[in-house]
Design brief:
mainly beta, Rieske Iron-sulfur Protein, four-stranded antiparallel beta sheet, three-stranded antiparallel beta sheet, binds FE2/S2 (inorganic) cluster
């Protein structure tokens, strides 16, 4: 397992990026839950963000592609709007142990 960060390092309803052997992983937080995805859009395979750690839309409800404005649900990475509508970000398994976020299978 790879230690990514403390849960408290990610503000609630926000996300952070982490470099891993699989590429950058986005970790989005909602309360005590975290959701991990490869930072690779399902339609052309590029990263979602222009600026480091800026992954959310203005409402902080959805992950957003900075290139196209596509919106992805935090809970399952499903694209609700945009060129990859109906596709999903590739999820990566995370676990929280003693308030530390770990990437499994790394
Ligand atoms: S790169 Fe696919 S929606 Fe922007």
């Amino acid at each position: 397992m790879l230690r990514l960060c403390a849960l408290a390092d990610i503000p609630d309803n926000d996300a952070r990026g982490f470099r891993t052997a699989q590429g950058e992983v986005i970790v989005a937080r909602q309360g005590l839950a975290v959701y991990g995805y490869l930072n690779r859009c399902p339609h052309i395979g590029i990263g979602l963000n222009f600026q480091p750690d800026v992954f959310m839309d203005l409402s902080y409800r959805y992950l957003q592609c900075a290139n196209h404005g596509a919106l992805f649900r935090v809970e399952d990475g499903f694209c609700l709007r945009g060129p990859c509508h109906g596709q999903s970000l590739k999820s990566v398994p995370l676990v929280i142990e003693k308030s530390i976020v770990w990437l499994i299978n790394e």
